[in-house]
């Protein structure tokens, strides 16, 4: 029976079952080239065992000063900062969703069927997708000053092109029969979107928005380090004065908050699925 299976596999894909020497040599050359490139990058980045062991020694001493974690009598202030970070993430996500919905509709092939316009629009989204929230935050904090305002706008600007792409793909993959049914009944284009399109894509969009909210809650802490307020600012301040026990307390409390939000978001997304 094994011989029969082998003969069938040979008949279906002879090159996969018995690759030629040239194919094997090509694979070996590709693996060798990858290993050489990895070695060169490690040398360039000074990823040496000595650096690793030295860093572990310093890390051990740092962790020794961080135990036990302590709030330093600043628990109310830390909790307010975590709440501010969540508010930044929530506001940034809401603004991103509001901006991405019309862009997602325009970017869908089924809504705007012109290939040239669709290609140009998608490439424009790809261009802005290459700018991370941290870069936007550095620019906006310099323009608007320290505080959460720049962080909220940075999160929104970073998420809009990503959500717009996901929304447009969700619209393109809907079942066309309900849409055609509403259109055949003589409904206006706006009502076609409302009654034929929205019921299908709304749960998908809501699930994707919740997923981005999770990521923004984590990203907002990083933005705080560059001056956008929130828990990141508190953490950077503790590290700067070498109060590693308080920094450890902030990190642990923030991890619990992130885990709680992820759990809640996951349950909500299950109900939307």
Automatic annotation (TrEMBL):
Instruction: Decide whether keyword Cell membrane is in the record.
Output: no
Keywords for this protein: Membrane, Transmembrane, Transmembrane helix, Transport
InterPro entries the UniProt entry points to? MetI-like (IPR000515), MetI-like_sf (IPR035906), PhnE/PtxC (IPR005769)
Q: Does the keyword Transmembrane helix apply?
A: yes
Q: Where are the membrane-spanning stretches?
A: 86-112, 133-158, 241-261
All residue ranges annotated as the ABC transmembrane type-1 domain in the record: 82-265
Localization annotation: Cell membrane
Q: What is its main location?
A: membrane
Q: What is the official name of this protein in its record?
A: Phosphonate ABC transporter, permease protein PhnE
Q: Membrane topology type, per the record?
A: Multi-pass membrane protein
Report the gene name. Answer: phnE
One Pfam family this sequence matches: BPD_transp_1
